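--- STAGE predict ---
source: upstream dedup step, 1 unique chain passed
mode: sequence only
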Amino acid sequence: MAKISFKVTGMSCAACSAAVEIGLKNLEGTSEVSVNLATGKTVVEYDPEKLTPQDLFDLVESKGYGIFTGKDDSEEEERAVRILRKDLILSAIFAIPLFIVSMGPMVGLNLEFLIGSDPRTYAILQLALCIPCLYAGRRFFINGYRNIARLNPNMDSLVALGVTASFTFSLYMTYLVFSGDTGAHFYYESAGMIITLILFGNYLESGSKKKVGDAVRKLMTLSPDTATIIVDGKEYEVPRDSLIVGDLIVVKPGGRFPADGTVTSGISVVDESMLTGESAPADKTEGSIVYEGTVNMNGRLEASVTHTGEDTALSHIVEMVEDAQSTKAPIARIADRVVRYFVPAVMLVAVTSALIWFISGKDLEFSVTVLVSVLVIACPCALGLATPLAIIVGTTRGADMGILFKNAEALQIAAGIDVVVFDKTGTLTEGRPAVTDAISLTDRNTMLRIAASAEYGSEHPVGRAVVEYAEAEGIPVSGPESFEALVGSGLRAVVNGSDVLIGNRRLMDENNIDVTSLEERFSGLSAEGKTVMYVASDNALTGIIAVSDRIRESSRETVASLDSMGIRSVMITGDGEATARAIAAQAGIGEVMANMMPWQKVEGVTALQEGGHRVAMVGDGINDAPALVKSDLGIAIGSGTDIAMESADVVIMSNDVMSVPAAARVGRATMKNVKQNLFLAFVYNIIGIPIAAGALYLAGGPLLNPMIAAGAMSLSSLSVVLNALRLTVIKI
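--- STAGE serialize ---
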């Protein structure tokens, strides 16, 4: 199967997106289809042996919509907004005086001194003022009637029918006036104001929807247009797009990196908040990785380009966010099912209501008012926007925090997790050992110098930890004269002519070295889950060094935050019981699964799921990948392997596990917003349509004016958009 994504243009409501989606799904050869009303982005999985991309495009165009296959559609959007603004201004210029001429006499406004008292003059003037409004709203008639002809009526169809009914009735009244009936009433102002109010609502909605996508567009513009490269010692400015892997680039203070690379020269700090969500800048020295779009804060840096164009981390982030925004959450299926039948049902209700009132004895004017009000108050647009807008804002808000949701379903699942299973190494801990204790029987610095010199050049993580610790203490370290690794017990080396042994109790016993003076301290540190080594020089014990994979500073806060949200924390690791429980205690986790092989981690996750829990698995290594896939929500830490990230549903770009409860909060806030939007959309239609059909009038109240109905319809869509935008500012 192949996958293609493109933008469908010209969709105005959920009925439009439903028609495109159903049409594509009905094509033989398609499997998965998702059409996003808010962004227009359409993703289709299809069989290339049965279909070509052009077949898909032809189907969309046969439904009356356009295709955009480029990356940046901002110019097209701006053009559409400009046309909408011009039409709105034109309509308002004529609709306002039309409203005054029509409604003025009803509120005591005397216009006879301007236009006289002849009813025919009033009729002709209102007709003349209404025609430009109809032209300004031509989109509704063109799209609306075209979709009716295709048996796929949409919101534009409802507006077109409502305005046509008002205008046609008014034309008939105009005929009666010229026939001598001076008591005729006109609905020209309803036709003009309906168009103006709906254009106004569409204009506000388009501006709000643009704000929704601004965050992703901002990401896309972070990379500079040009880059400075070094060739034969000279600097040249070139277009960013011309960079290739291996180019040597230079970024001065305040500049942005034009590509991903590895620092070859210089020392600086770099602002990576746009990638990781962390406000603290990252130190960069020779060998450090730098990313496209990040900002060099102070020192000059030279770097060798490793990734360009669509291969950079920034491009992958943008792609991941856009993919997530084009998918649908399971909760969206509710609105999808309703929308399929919504517009035809509204048309049926409108005609039926008008006929019932007419048959019951009401005049034609009353019945037309009911017909028009029902048609224009119904709002499939609000239903269609309820879920995708919240998903867009939620995934974008997550990206701002360095949390990437791969799809909308992951966002919904994140809202419902009640157990988080943490891998230990590299997740709750920093993933690299560090010296925690150095106890000497003689001079501490001398013991550390001997141990670090013996370990100098070692590739073993524990050895490197000892060397780094000594150097951080300011102790001079030099390489050994000889070195021998002793498998299973430690090492033997010669440092400055002294025989040095570093290792476990067995190594000491084999060399008849007495360790009783530090045996109790050794056992105590081992019970804490630390790796402890004896250090001996010239057949005499000099001290012990304890090394441990240090817990991240944020781990305990993370567990406490999850606990406050009612989410239980579990630690799962391949380490032994003592080490695992020691780390878990530091993190505040009471439930531990130790000595777990990769397949056993899967079994552990499965057992929790079978207990009725929604489980999130947090890991960073290859051995975590099976459990990430098995869990309801796989979360990969940004320092992890590519395999772990590919297996996960959520990727955290930083190493901060506090992003785990943040991901759950983003999910909960987004799903709460979705439910609010669906409530607004459903309740609006459930209440609004009966009122427009005359429910209030039956109870002794007024009959709804079509102009008020049009304003309410625009307000309903706008309320959904504005509620979704709240996610950009509320505290998460």
